[in-house]
Amino acid sequence: MRLRGVSLSPYYERALIVADVKGALEKVEEAGMPGPFGSDALKSENPTGKIPYLLLDDGTMLPEGQVIAEYFNDVFDGPDLMPADALGAARARLFGRIIDLYLGIHTTPLARTITRGTRDEAAIEAALSTGIPMAMDLIERNLAGGAYAVGDRFSLADAALIPPMFHLTVFLAHFDIKPFDGRPKFAAWWDANRDTDVVQRCFARMQKSLDFILSLRKAAQ
Questions:
Q1: Which among 15, 73, 135, 151 could disulfide-bond with 103, CB atoms 3.0 to 4.6 Å apart, if both were Cys?
Q2: CA–CA separation, 68 vs 164, rounded Å?
Q3: Eight-state DSSP code of residue 155
């Protein structure tokens, strides 16, 4: 199976983290992108023109990071990353929705100031003043309050939360975002996870991806 996208995408990395925790990274080919975002080459495989998406050996295409993450959890051996009880499973999926609907939409215009050199000042102001703080408040509200986002072990919720932390604490640090101020559960969760092998491998992939994207931008100037 081939995973299309780039590791700087938190949605792409969400799926890779699941494969990593399941001990199945070698079963997933990181296949990059067939063309730029929205290009005909990309749309020929995924009509939305977005990443990530998974190409299975039988030709099936699965889009969306959360869908792929749950698929990896189901098909690979290793620990089950979906809580067994219905409420726990719902709460695990909730973190993916918070990232997808409320955080990612606001980190994107900030990221584009670095990766593309473009600035949408209204979007940046909205992100910093209300959008990102609200998303982080939602994370704080729904965290269990310990080392794991939901329950007493690593789950799909943690896999969803880890990649945005690269954006918030490393990639976009010059925007002076303070994720943990007034959010003790969020701070405790990050303190428990920041130095784990899973997070370090994720951050290394995301940094490598960022460096590559910046090198392409520099070469084009």
A1: 135
A2: 17
A3: -
